[in-house]
Every structure is written in structure tokens, then in C-alpha cells.
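Hi there,

I know you've been waiting on this one. I reran it after we fixed the sequence typo, so this is the corrected version. Both the input and the resulting structure follow.
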Amino acid sequence: MIINKLNKFFVFFQIFKKSLSIAYI
């Protein structure tokens, strides 16, 4: 389903943002 793919992408994006903020600190 498209919604499921979008949800997975959103979770991946959140993790990516978190790792980015950790890398900057």
C-alpha cells in the first residue's frame, strides 16, 4: 500500500534527522 510506504519513509526520515543532529553536536 502507498500509505504503508509513506509511513516507512517518514520513520526513516525521522531517524535520518536524528542521526544528523547527533552528528552535528
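Quick highlight: The chain is about 90% helix and 0% strand.

Best,
R. S.
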